[in-house]
Write a structure and sequence with these properties.
The protein is an alpha/beta fold. It is built from eight helices and twelve strands. The strands form three sheets. It has a seven-stranded mixed sheet, sandwiched between helices. Strands 1-2-3 form a three-stranded antiparallel sheet, covered by helices on one side. It has a two-stranded antiparallel ribbon with strand order 11-12. It is globular, with a radius of gyration of 17 Å. The two termini are 31 Å apart.
Length: 251
Amino acid sequence: MARSSIEISERAGVRYLHFSSDWVQGAMRVQRPNALELPYTREMMAGLLLRDPPWPRQALLIGLGAGSLAKFIYHRLPATRITVVEIDPQVEIVARLHFKLPDDPLRLRVLIADGAEYMLKGDSLHDYILIDGFDRHARAGVLDTLPFYQACRARLSQSGLLAVNLLGRERGFEASAERISQAFDGRALVFPSCDSGNTIAFASAGDPVDLRFDELIKRANQCRQETGLNLLPTIARLQQERHLPNDWLRV
């Protein structure tokens, strides 16, 4: 992503991050700086429903934005080490100055680098890879290609999951979803769109996801108790959109 003018706005107690447009790149409720304010960020953490705690041990985020996902994982999942790859150094500065990104390089490491190059050239493994990188025109570029998704698969641990924010695809998300599915041999699932209109895809290449509906509910209640994150609406959308055939979720 080329460097662009970064703008900060605030209304009704919520601070927003923009990249030279009205498009919101991130948000933080000032009185609850570590909560996930935007619905799609909550959806991206639905991987917590799919694996047994303590998970993930290692999280990799491509794209920092306002730091919402990084902060949530840092504060709510204390056993997790986090690596964030962000191409624009201005974004890190803004996240620290205006969005309370923690300064703890032992647990939260921010690398200023190209996310695609980092993924394609590295060899470290991660339990949770979260892709949320766009330019100021809401385009993902090389982060939405088959070689990139194949590289993501290669960087996942045995219990690893990939989560991708599919917002910004010019012709819908179907082509992106197909590329993810191809990279993961069909072991991918597009979750129903959340309130913000974002669509999140999940994929797995190691241990299968094989969960009954009642187990998902149990995990959602446990997650809400331990982290404050309510994923029950996510399960309800999965059920309404018939993604739980015979009350099972399989990825």
